[in-house]
Amino acid sequence: MEDLFSLIGGKVCLVTGGGGSIGGELVRQLNKLGADKIIIVDIYENGAYELGCELGERVCVEIASVRDYNKMNYIMSYYRPDIIFHAAAHKHVPFMEESPEEAVKNNIRGTEIMAELADIYKSSKFVLISTDKAVEPVSIMGASKRICEMLVYEKSLVSMYTCFTTVRFGNVINSNGSVIPLFKRQIAEGLVTVTHKDASRYFMTIPEAAGLVLRSLILSENGGIFVLEMGDGIKILDIAEKLIREMGMEPYRDVKIEFTGLRRGDKLNEKLFYDNECSKKTAYEKIMYVRGSSIDNLAGYVKKLYAMAESNDRDGIRSLIMKITEGE
Fold first, then answer.
1. Which end of the chain is more exposed for a tag (fewer CB within 10 A), N or C?
2. Rounded to two decimals, what is the model's pTM?
3. Exactly one of 105, 133, 155, 267 is catalytic; which is it?
């Protein structure tokens, strides 16, 4: 913690998606670590408002979208943040399957804008929040986040001022839209839905996720990707059964469990690394590191994606975005 105090104390920090589950916890921890000013950038007012009320004058709230270059340029030029945490993204797999143009506009373009502005305004550190769904992606959301990882890596190769890193998460327990709050509501109604009896995911708590992000600042490997070592994946079915019992009922007797089948974009099991990524231990026992990577002509492909998104060419986006990530 002493290392974090020296890194963050007195600094200006900007958190995109700062009103969300991970972004909000980052804001709280940055406040405890003595950041001089914390700028929350979020398009969603309620979470940002509550944090502003909770933490007071050290926090500044900017209602804005990371896909709006002019607005983000204004915010960056006004505050000149030392450290940027980029957590803003569309995260729901089924929604992005239906609206792939929004994954391109918000996830990919938003990341490119923030990385470019971090370099222009000479921020010392930029941290992208990614997901294990970016590893060998089968979903639009996962593929968009993999492209974000590539963009940040490419920026790390040319920036003279900013250290660019990425942090990959598994599922975050009790975050907005996560499975556990859903299961609790379903248990109360007497029917829990699980996609597949063998489906598993990696899980971490909100404080663990925020702690991983902050410790990546200390490790500071430009162009690197940091991943929390989370052991084996946990079966979704096991979680559902455990929650039912914790609520004083018996699975299959008091609460039905229905298997609905994997949705488009769902994997049976997630992975933390590509097979060709050589993971290494770091100074922190549970944090692993791999070198980032990209593909030839990423900029050209991304430009095509932007054009398709503007014309709402959903089929074209689905085809190209998977081609980009399959070509590694």
1. N
2. 0.93
3. 133
